[in-house]
C-alpha cells in the first residue's frame, strides 16, 4: 500500500471518528474558535491537567482530569477546572498517573475566573512502555478570545498506545 493511500485512509478514519465523537458531545455547548492565529495573542499563563490514569478500551477512552490555570509570574495556580477528555480511535493498554500542559494564549491579559471553560477538539497520540509521552493537538477557546496552545506535551507511566480524535471539556470548579 502506498504512503499516499495510507495517509488518505488515516485522515478519513480521523474525520469519521471525529464526527462520531462530536455527535456524542452534543449535550455540552461548543466553544467559539477564534479565527485569529495564536501568534497574534500573548501567552498569559499555563494550564496543567493531571489524570489518575486508566484503561484504553481498544476503540477509545474517557478520563477525568483535575486542571489548574497559573498566570505567568504567579507563584501559585489561581483558577481550578474539572476536565474530561474523551478519545475515539485506537487506545489499547493501561496507564498510571499522567500530566498534560498547555500554554494559554489570549489577546488580553485580563483573564478572569472560568474564562478557560469550554470545549477543545483535535488529534491525540501517545505511546508508553513503563514511561512514555504523548501530544494533544487540540484547538478551541472561549467567548473571551482565550485559546490553548494547540500542542500539549504529556508524560505518563504504564503500557499503552493510542491515536485518534480527542475532545477536552473544561468546567470551572
Percent in helix: 10-25%
Mean pLDDT: 75
Order of helices and strands: HEEEEEE
Quickly count the helices. 1
Number of individual domains: 1
What's the count of strands?
6
Shape: elongated
Main pleated sheet: 6 strands, antiparallel
Tell me the strand percentage band: over 45%
Question: What structural class results from the helix and strand content?
Answer: mainly beta
Gyration radius, rounded: 16 Å
| Distance N to C terminus | 49 Å
Low-confidence stretches: 4-39
Question: Tags for this entry?
Answer:
173 residues; mainly beta; 6-stranded antiparallel sheet; 1 helix; 60% strand
Walk me through what this model shows.
It holds the Pfam family DUF992. Keywords: Signal. Residues 1-23 form the signal peptide. This is DUF992 domain-containing protein. The chain has 173 residues and is mainly beta. It has one domain. It has one helix at residues 3-24, and strands at 42-51, 54-71, 79-106, 118-140, 146-148, 151-172. Strands 1, 2, 3, 4, 5 and 6 form a six-stranded antiparallel β-sheet that branches. The longest helix is centred in the first third of the chain and has 22 residues, at 3-24. It is elongated and about 40 Å long. Residues 4-39 have low confidence and may be disordered.
Amino acid at each position: 500500500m502506498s504512503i499516499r493511500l495510507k495517509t488518505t485512509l488515516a485522515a478519513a478514519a480521523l474525520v469519521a471518528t471525529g464526527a462520531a465523537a462530536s455527535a456524542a458531545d452534543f449535550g455540552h455547548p461548543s466553544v467559539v474558535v477564534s479565527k485569529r492565529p495564536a501568534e497574534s495573542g500573548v501567552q498569559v499563563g499555563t494550564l496543567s491537567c493531571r489524570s489518575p490514569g486508566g484503561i484504553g478500551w481498544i476503540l477509545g477512552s474517557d478520563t477525568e482530569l483535575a486542571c489548574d490555570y497559573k498566570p505567568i509570574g504567579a507563584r501559585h495556580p489561581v483558577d481550578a477546572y474539572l476536565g474530561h477528555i474523551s478519545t475515539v480511535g485506537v487506545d489499547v493498554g493501561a496507564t498510571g498517573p499522567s500530566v498534560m500542559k498547555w500554554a494559554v494564549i489570549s489577546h488580553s491579559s485580563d483573564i478572569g475566573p472560568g474564562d478557560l471553560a469550554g470545549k477543545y477538539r483535535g488529534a491525540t497520540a501517545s505511546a508508553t512502555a513503563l514511561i512514555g509521552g504523548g501530544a494533544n493537538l487540540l484547538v478551541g477557546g472561549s467567548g473571551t478570545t482565550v485559546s490553548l496552545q494547540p500542542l500539549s506535551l504529556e508524560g505518563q507511566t504504564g503500557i499503552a498506545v493510542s491515536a485518534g480524535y480527542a475532545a477536552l471539556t473544561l468546567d470551572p470548579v
